[in-house]
Specification:
Layout lengths: L5 E4 L3 H11 L1 H17 L4 H9 L2 H7 L1 H14 L3 H8 L1 H4 L6 E7 L10 E9 L6 E6 L7 E6 L6 E4 L3 E6 L12 H9 L4 H9 L7 E7 L3 E7 L4 E4 L6 E3 L14 H4 L2 H14 L7 H8 L23 E10 L4 E5 L5 H4 L4 E5 L2
Helix pairs in contact: 1-5, 3-6, 4-5, 5-6, 8-9
Length: 356
Amino acid sequence: MSGYPFLTLTGTARERGYQYGSQVPELIKKNIAFYRTMFEGFGVPWETAGKISKKFEPFIRDYYPEALEEISGVAEGANLSYEDILTINCRSEILFAKPDGCTTFGILPEQSCDGHTYLGQTWDWLKPARDTTVILEVHVEGQPKILIAVEAGIIGGKGLNSEGIGVCLNALSTGKGGLGVPLHILYRAILAQTNISNALEAVTQTQRAGCGNFAIGSAQGFLMCVEYTPENFDVLMPIDKPMCHTNHYLSPLFRPQDTFKRDLTETFVRLNRLERLAYGLKRPFTQKDMWRILSDHANYPDSICSHQDPKDPVTRRFCTIYTLVMDLNERTFCITEGEPCDQKISSSSIYKYVIN
C-alpha cells in the first residue's frame, strides 16, 4: 500500500459517502481549506463558490442522482456541510478555464509486449493536492467495482473498473463554460460502464458543464480521446501509433477556439516530446517504457515529469502530483507519490492495486 489512504466503500450511496467522510475527515477539511484559499485568490469567496455549485445540482440529479447521495454521506461522515462537499466536487467548473497541466499516454495491445492495453498519465497540479490524495475502491450494486485516485472529499477521478474500462483526463478550454454535469461526476458515470461505447455515451449524451479530454481505454483493445466542450465533442482513436495527449485540442473542430494554447504554451512541447519518445520506440512497449517516458525531463521544469518553477506565479507553479499507469487487462492500477523521476522509479515509490 502507498502513503495515500486506501478506502473501500460499500453499501448504499449514502452509506458509501458516510464511510468515506468518517475515515478521512481531516484530509477533506484540508482539501476544502486549499480550495477556499485558491478560490479567494481568484476573487471567488467560498460562499459565492457554494452558490455557484448549487447551480449544477439539478443536472447532477438528472444524470447521476446517487452522486448527490454520496456527497450528502461524505458531508455527514466528515461532520461538514453538504454545500462544502458539493463545492469541491464542482471545483473545476467554479474556477473554469484556469490553466492546468497533464500528459496522457496509451498503448494498444498490438504495440505492447504482452498484448495488453495500457493507459496512464501524469497529473500536474498545485503541490498541496499531493497531501490530500486518497485511493477509493467503490462497490456499487449492479455496477463494476471501481478503483480511483481522488482529492479527499471528491467522489470521481482517474481510474479503472473491474470490466477493464479505464479513464484519464487532460484539462482543455475554449474559454466558455456553462451549466451542466461537472467533470468529476462524469468520471463516475464513465467507470460505471461495461464497454467503451457506453463509456463514450456517458460523456456525449448529457449536458456537460465544461471542457476537457477524457482518455478512455478498454481491455478489449480500444483507446480513445474524447475532446469536448459544453456544446460539442469529437472522438480521436489511434490505429497504428500510441495515443498521446496534453493540454490543447487536437480535433480540427476545436482548434480555433482553444484558449489553453495561449495560456499554457508548454503543452505543445510536452506533446512533441511524448510523440517522439512513443513513436520512436522500435520494439513492443513494456510497462517500464511507459514509466520511463512519463518520467522524461526534456524542457525541465516544464517537462512531461513536471516540477515547480519558482519563476512562475504561485497559482501557476505546477508539478506532477502523481503518475499512474493502468494495465486494463490485468486490472492493475500503479501510482507514484510525487514526480515519477528515475530515482523514484528505482525505489519503492510505485504502488500497485488490483481490482477484480
